[in-house]
């Protein structure tokens, strides 16, 4: 067996680490040698203040196991709060190497009512919160030529309906935007030794039961998908050995798998008409088997690759890009 993945000498910030998946990230990193800022603002899944010090409770757990950690009780949704949690790592240990952006809320909302009451808080916590911790840490990571960022998206970004038929709004929108933000961070970070990836976790936590109560899905999750599976599956992304950047990974129950945007060559004709599109719809859609396994798709690697696919499809193939 190869050497253990370790974090000795590394300093990590894990947001929303007072429970659920964030706690598992913090314990996993600390058990492998990282010094950890355990952040948690202590709110309910609907973003109401709760009267506990869950960040300190996780710090106590880590210390009792022989690790090093300090608590931060600020909000990632507040620029000053995000700055402070990064500064706390710098003041205490002189560096910041790893950010696991995990803090989250889930105030159910319907897409047709957006932007509704929960819109601002979802954007602030899930999207802006992940941007603001990274913004605060970026100068330190760039100066040291090293950084690892693990952002938390959600399979909710793929299409998310509640058992009562409500299609989610801002939660899913914000989580989708996290994937785009992660790609941009990876691009910008490449010159500085900063790698950024996103995860789409599924794990039974206090956030899950109220969303899918009484379902066979919840029963399945309770049996097979724990927070530790997420932390252990994502651990490599926070490590020196991180083999990817700009990617998103589905992680749950012991499964880790990259998620890609993909498209077939499609239908392409410089003399396009609406009728030609209709008559060539099967080419537009490409081929999948009954399990949705893709048969003739290309990964849409980035914006520039779109032009290469256009050329492959026969549009201006001779032109220099
Ligand atoms: N559990 C799942 O199956 C699942 C699925 C997809 C995505 N996620 C995402 O994973 C992350 C962790 O979720 P969880 O299931 O462990 O939920 P959780 O409710 O157990 O943990 C979230 C923690 O974030 C904290 N928090 C909320 N707002 C904060 C803020 N502004 N600043 C700092 N901390 C804040 C909360 O106090 C809470 O302790 C979230 O981003 C969630 O959206 C979870």
From TrEMBL:
It holds the Pfam family adh_short. The keyword Transmembrane does not apply. Keywords: Oxidoreductase. The keyword Oxidoreductase applies. Belongs to the short-chain dehydrogenases/reductases (SDR) family. This is 3-oxoacyl-ACP reductase.
């Amino acid at each position: 067996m190869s050497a253990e993945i370790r974090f000795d000498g590394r300093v990590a910030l894990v947001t929303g680490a007072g429970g659920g998946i964030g706690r598992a990230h913090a314990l996993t990193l600390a058990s492998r040698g990282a010094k950890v800022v355990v952040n948690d603002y202590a709110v309910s899944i609907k973003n109401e203040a709760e009267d506990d010090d869950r960040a300190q409770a996780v710090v106590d757990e880590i210390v009792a196991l022989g690790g090093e950690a300090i608590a931060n009780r600020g909000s990632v949704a507040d620029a000053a709060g995000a700055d402070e949690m990064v500064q706390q790592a710098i003041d205490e240990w002189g560096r910041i190497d790893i950010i696991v952006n995990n803090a989250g809320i889930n105030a159910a909302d319907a897409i047709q009512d957006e932007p509704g009451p929960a819109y601002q808080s979802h954007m602030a916590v899930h999207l802006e919160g992940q941007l603001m911790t990274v913004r605060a840490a970026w100068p330190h990571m760039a100066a040291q030529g090293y950084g690892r960022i693990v952002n938390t998206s959600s399979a909710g970004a793929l299409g998310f309906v509640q058992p009562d038929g409500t299609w989610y709004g801002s939660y899913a929108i914000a989580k989708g935007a996290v994937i785009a933000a992660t790609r941009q961070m990876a691009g910008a970070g490449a010159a500085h030794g900063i790698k950024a990836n996103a995860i789409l976790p599924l794990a039974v936590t206090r956030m899950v039961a109220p969303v899918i109560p009484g379902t066979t899905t919840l029963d399945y999750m309770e049996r097979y998908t724990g927070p530790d599976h997420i932390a252990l599956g994502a651990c490599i992304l926070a490590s020196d050995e991180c083999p990817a950047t700009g990617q998103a990974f589905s992680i749950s129950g012991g499964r880790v798998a990259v998620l890609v945007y993909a498209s077939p060559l499609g239908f392409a004709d410089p003399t396009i008409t609406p009728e030609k599109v209709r008559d060539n719809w099967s080419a537009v859609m490409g081929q999948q088997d009954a399990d949705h396994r893709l048969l003739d798709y290309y990964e849409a690697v980035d914006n520039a690759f779109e032009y290469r696919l256009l050329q492959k499809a026969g549009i201006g193939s001779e032109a220099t890009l």
